[in-house]
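#dry-run=false #mode=assembly
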Amino acid sequence: MTFGLLSAGQMALVAALAGAAVVAIFFLKVRHPLVVVPSLVLWQRVLDEHRRDSLIERLRRLLSLLLALAIAWLLAVAAAEPRPDGASGGRLALIVDNGPTMHALTGGGTRLDRAKAAARTLITQAGGDARFQVVDTSGAVRTPPDLDRQQAVDAVDRIRPGAGDRRTPATAEGYAPVIFTDAPQEGLPEGARVVSLFERVSNVGITAFEVRATPARPSEHTAYLSIVNFDAEAREVAITIGAPGRTRVQRTVPLAAGAAFRQVLPMNELDPGVVEARISTAGDRFPADDVAFGWLPDPRPWRVALITTGQPALAAVIGSDPGVVLEIVAPDDYRPAIDADLLVFDRFVPETAPETPALLIGPAPSAWLPLAEATRTLPTVVASGTEHPLMAAVALDDLHVTRTAVIAAEGAVPLAADAGHTVIAAGSAAAPWVAIGFALDDSNFATQPAFPIFIANTLAWFRGEADPIIATPGLIEVPRAGAMITTLDGQRVPSTSALGASRFTADGPGVFFATARGVRVPVLVNLAQAGWTPAAPDGAADAGAGELPATSRPWWTLMAMAVLLLLAVEWFTWQRRITV
Amino acid sequence: MAAPDLPFDQAFLGKLEHLHILSKQVFAGAFHAERTARRRGSGLEFADHRGYAPGDDFRHIDWRAYQRLGKLLLRLFEEEQGLPIYLFVDHSGSMAGGTPSKLQYARQVAAALCYIGLAHLDRVAVLGYADRLGPELPGQRGKGQIFRVFSFLGALEAEGGTHAGEALRTFRLRQATRGVAVVISDFLDPHGAEAGLEALRHGRHDVFAVHVTSAADRHPPIGGDVRLQDAETGDVRSLAITPGLLAAYAQAFDDHAASIERYCDRYQLGYLRTSTDEPFEDAILKVFRLGRFLG
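#status=ok
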């Protein structure tokens, strides 16, 4: 048996105190009137001759004491809300669904709010010695088992709205899973009890919004918008698209029950940056999918001049960027006044430092880019500047280099090295260059997955802005170490940084910027996915109230009834002098 | 100490003067009294003969009998002596019970008996006892001493335990002169109700037991759950008093009194039982007469 309010030890203490109090009160109670008699000699004789009566006397006193003790102990135990072992008061794994549909508004906040409240209630009602594990379906919160009640409540409080993928997490062995959700998923643990938070709500939502370049004209962009009426009734949907605070498209469309609105809209008249799509529907209870964000890149092409005698792989990677206009220049044709936003030198170094940002691959020694006299053969190149934006997501584990120059430029930031000798380095803001000490022909770098990433990082670093990251609400990871996360209006967002990435939590749709070492990465958080409607998730029962698993309330109710019965027995027997 | 409240009016005293204490035995004594114990000795009235023994007074040899019988016989004469009366008044704690108290009733009985004895020039000694002997009023003679008796009795307080056997055994060992021993008590003695009587009987006293009871002794006015405290020892016992238990107690009380009476009958001791409910005068004039205690 476990107890809802007290631990077993506390319960034993309470029972002992109650028993002691009752015994004390009992003996106070039986201090009957004192009558002086001439002698107890004859009384003693009478009692000796009536031993049976004496035994009954003792028994009736004992019976009276036992009745009082039983009443007190039953009251104490009932107050502690006992429940059978193995019931919800034992070891519970609380699985809180923080998926997208849990954002739906209900009478008392969102479904997630109600789920957390229900979880807290269950924790509170569990026994004092109950132990918990708390996990959410996004994986953001996953505690170890053996939490006490306060730790479990704290863990529940930490649960935030999660990403789209609901994952039914595994729970600790021996812990009875209880899942708080609006849509039971498949693969629930055996014996899992479901606390349904589902209530039927009205929902019309954006299921897709994407701003993308026109295939025929990369400098032109369009937006794809998809809206679905998940409600059982037709709805009028007001649509606005534009930059935040500035409307570009505004229209109202009727949508029949279950109907979808899908349209491609030109975005060329908008300024580069954030594009917001927003819908408004009367009675909608799921605002999280009423807004979506896209990113309109700068339509001006990024001109890159590749000075090389011929390096098709490099040209292909650079040219694959839709925002890049690549020009290949032979070294003999190179002039310092070349009109480009970025110069890429392949096995060639100009005599003077270019004023244009430059990427140098396999450079030869020059006055402005000093190299060590000796080259290194078969070096083991290890990334050393993993937190630098240039090295974000760049893995050099499988890189093989036959020979490389060692970059000895003063003030250069080493990005990769061989035994302390810088092999890849970046200049400063005053000298915007990136140098790779080895030629692509002297390594397998061009065939590594890290190569296009490095080139993309280089382009973004020089442009000062990377391609946007599309994310869903919840824990968001930006592959930039030490990034400062800000909202669209510049508010700082708490974040953590580890393993070359920064992480922060977005409770709902929105636009964030992760800025690290001069590179700004837009982060677009959208909930717009077709399967994310809270209107009628598959398998959801309209349970409505989010009922908790049955607790052992009947036990204390029965005990309270037993107390009343014993009180009646005690009164009856006392009246008839059966008990004292 | 104030004199006891003894409502003896002149009429009652006059009746008392016509009574005298009877003794079924003949005692040797040193004082003459109106009511005497008969003793063969040096008196004037011939009583009997016995054989001469060396050392006997030659003057008491009956020479005429010697001439007729040829044997030396000694002439014996009756001697008139005062009758010693010992009144033992139990003043233990248990005697405080009753309305009036048993001790008060005992005082009155003792006072009346003293008056009777003193009026007939008997030597009357009054002794209180509880768990031991004392206090004591030595032998008095003559009606003029009655106020000393009253004063003595009035000074007795109901206190202490009861150990009549020990107290009266003490008396027996120090008092060689036999007499009428009247024990006035409720006989609620944890050491045995007959122990005191036994001690006096062994001292060859003519013993009378006056058993003073009260209505509350037999029918205590209690019921329900009570704690009973022994008036003598202070011991407390919690009891649930039921009608059945009260009936058993009354039966035990009757058995207790009957056992004392049987003891007295067995050893030919006088026994009188009286209750504080009964008028005192009736007890003296009727009950005592019926008990063959007074003549």
